Structure to design on (400 residues):
């Protein structure tokens, strides 16, 4: 029987940033960057006092063995060896993993171990492995492990199984049809979805937000996107995530943006506090270099088709002031343009918004923006806002 060799490439995560070779003895610096021990020792012995990747000065030059990464690399190498034997063996191997996950006789520990194998394999999908996962219909099985009533318990082992299964789901989603996600519409499965949102780990909550984002990317999952967007409890939880750590808040903003893609979801989002949550997120972006403030501003623009959204924004104690602070963002022109666009809308309709914006220094911000190197479109909108504020101010002064 002819055997087809499977091309295996080293995942980026498993390469030393210095040599670009497979990590043999991974160690981590105080900056959080991982290198092969021999390479980083040479770097430090040469008198370098910085981290090669970040170039941060090392106040602590100690190195710590990364046992978790070492374990993942060992597993990956073993699996690569098994996959390198040929097509039929590959299918048989994956089929045996699937059987373990499906079998009622398999223990939770065996199922967790099987999922761990899929997780390791997912770090580098070759084309044949992709076709095997699709052919063997892994996605519906993984979703059942996460949302099935058989695994509704919240014990530590059950949650470990669900977290691993969710990780594998997200790795498979770009490769397959999203139609199996419609199972979330089932009442019992949605109840577990909510349970994980409330009691799951931060990693699980991030993945669930990513899952919501995926439902908006296909017409086949539009109904489930609508259902999720109209669950007040769910959207309220997502809004609360906007107040959390950086990665979770980013995932929440992306999830809200996805739900916002359906017009029928917008009213529900506003009622659940999306405007206030987004303003809280944006106000925390001033000191962060990497954020989703432009996307958050786009969400506000989309929601402002609703009068209720405009009123919520104007009535938010920090709403107008936060937008004014975003007008002149030297490192983020998209954010500046979005802030000016939103201010154009609310200042055109609400006198209180105009007064608050002027009191918060919007005129100075706009003048700085016009003198900057921002794009023509942004400058045009800035001039429109200045003209609006001046004309309205003139009209209102005459009335007094």
């Amino acid at each position: 029987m002819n055997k087809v060799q499977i091309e295996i490439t080293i995942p980026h995560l498993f390469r030393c940033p210095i040599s670009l070779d497979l990590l043999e003895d991974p160690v981590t610096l105080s900056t959080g960057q991982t290198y092969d021990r021999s390479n980083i020792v040479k770097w430090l012995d040469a008198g370098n006092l910085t981290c090669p990747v970040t170039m941060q000065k090392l106040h602590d030059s100690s190195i710590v063995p990364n046992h978790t990464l070492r374990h993942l690399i060992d597993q990956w190498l073993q699996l690569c060896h098994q996959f390198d034997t040929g097509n039929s063996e590959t299918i048989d191997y994956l089929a045996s993993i699937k059987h373990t996950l499906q079998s009622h006789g398999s223990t939770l520990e065996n199922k967790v171990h099987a999922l761990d194998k899929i997780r390791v394999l997912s770090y580098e999908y070759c084309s044949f492995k992709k076709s095997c996962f699709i052919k063997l219909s892994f996605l519906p099985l993984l979703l059942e492990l996460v949302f099935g009533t058989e695994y509704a318990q919240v014990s530590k082992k059950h949650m470990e199984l669900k977290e691993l299964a969710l990780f594998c789901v997200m790795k498979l989603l770009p490769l397959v049809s999203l139609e199996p996600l419609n199972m979330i519409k089932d009442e019992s499965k949605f109840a577990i979805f909510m349970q994980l949102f409330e009691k799951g780990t931060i990693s699980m909550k991030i993945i669930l937000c990513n899952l919501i984002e995926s439902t908006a990317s296909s017409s086949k999952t539009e109904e489930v996107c609508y259902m999720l967007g109209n669950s007040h409890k769910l959207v309220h939880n997502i809004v609360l995530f906007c107040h959390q750590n950086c990665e979770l808040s980013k995932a929440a903003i992306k999830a809200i943006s996805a739900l916002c893609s359906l017009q029928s979801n917008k009213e529900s989002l506003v009622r659940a506090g999306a405007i206030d949550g987004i303003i809280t997120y944006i106000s925390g972006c001033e000191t962060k270099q990497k954020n989703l403030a432009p996307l958050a501003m786009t969400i506000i623009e989309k929601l402002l088709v609703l009068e209720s959204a405009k009123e919520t924004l104007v009535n938010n104690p920090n709403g107008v002031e936060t937008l004014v602070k975003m007008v002149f963002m030297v490192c983020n022109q998209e954010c500046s343009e979005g802030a000016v666009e939103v201010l154009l809308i609310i200042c055109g309709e609400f006198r209180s918004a105009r007064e608050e914006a002027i009191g918060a220094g919007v005129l100075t911000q706009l003048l700085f923006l016009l003198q900057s190197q921002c794009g023509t479109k942004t400058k045009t909108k800035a001039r429109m806002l200045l003209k609006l504020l001046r004309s309205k101010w003139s009209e209102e002064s005459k009335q007094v």
